[in-house]
Amino acid sequence: MLLLALGFILQRRRKRLGLALAMLGFAALWLSSLGVVGTSMLRLLEPPPASLAALKSATAIVVLGAGRVHNSPDYADDVPGAEALVRLRYAARLARGTGLPVLLSGGKPYGGRLSEGETMARVLKLDFNVAARWVENQSTTTAESAMRAHAMLQPEGRTRIALVTSAWHMPRASRAFGKAGFEVVPAPTGYVSRRDSKLTDWLPSAEGLYATRVALWELLGMVWYRLKGSA
Q1: What pLDDT does residue 92 have?
Q2: Is residue 42 part of a domain?
Q3: pTM over 0.70
Q4: CA 190, 45, 78 angle in degrees (round to 5)?
């Protein structure tokens, strides 16, 4: 969009340069909007599913928040967003299968009445019949979640954890938690569909643009964390 705007501004004085920038901006926007581009980028970030043998060696399950719906009218309160529900569902299955205690992590990065950790704890108990043992409700970033979770679990010697988050978020999350002092057993969920591509995947769409945005956000986040020394 910036390239398109710059090309429009320059087209009167430097027509060729303006046209070139506009075409480059249009091409970048078009490619970013293709479903085949966005999903392919996300798949590159996704690690393999967790193995049962690796999960058995963990001492706790840590679930990362993924946004909330503020003051949802149907529940008359803050509730976990769709991505958070995917993570909670998988965490509940792991908790029942392994018997490991659960820590939920997430503060109020965008305001609201309840923290991500608190909203997830409610849903985990009421809808999945699993009680969280710990709720971390102050963090606003993945790196903060890692540090605060370590402060809660390290005194009990629970430093080998099954980390539950979206598959595309796992590379950055696992590095941040490793940096904080954990031995991480990745337990990714919410994989991008592995269905065969179809014709509409090659057409621009809001879904394609969103997938590209998420992938770029994660890649930039990994670079930023490395520059800060957070991962």
Answers
A1: 96
A2: no
A3: yes
A4: 40
